[in-house]
Amino acid sequence: MSDSVFDSQLDIFNSPTNEICRLINCLVDLSLADKVSALNEIRQALHEISPFNTEPVDFVKWVKSDQVHANDYNPNSVAPPEMELLRLSISADGYTQPIVSMPVSGAYEVIDGFHRHRVGKECQDIQSRIHGYLPLVQIRDSQHDKNDRMASTIRHNRARGEHRVDSMAEIVIELKRRFWDDKKIAKELGMEPDEVLRLTQVTGLAGLFADREFSEAWEAETLQEIEGEDAQD
Question: Residue 160: pLDDT above 70?
């Protein structure tokens, strides 16, 4: 872009009579709810023409906290000291990461950021500071199915190395009930095939095994390990 073109575009933003300045002046006197709503609409309009509009982080939307709900499958847990550290971080540094969400049944379901969402709802000082809203980004529309939302939550958790084995096993079983085979589960959740199998076996629901041959091979290997340990004893 030449300097002359750049300067002319700057003049548009600096001119007191341009549309942007008039829009800003209109926003100043709006109520909080109307101002947030208008700013969300403006950000969305900018997002739609952005070269980065395929990336959720390009559009952070502020949503009333009572419209944001936890999902019913998150296997991530945070110990009390880490939870307090998260509260302190948000209190001192502000929200530096939005909550990842998906619109579901007229509300927003948390895909990632359950504990950030809790802090914004439950810590009175922070709730007051952000006026009862929460910062959200929305995952891609292609992930709207519950299977995909579950997989997305697991990917976020595992990327940070955070998940509970028992809850992970429950999710693997749930995805099997939804007709995902071991290969698809392993791919979508970032697992090895034997990890999927072992999590399935934790539940004792052998009838859900999709790969019988692989299951029998793993069981034979495990039996040999046990016999070897007994022999050493």
Answer: no
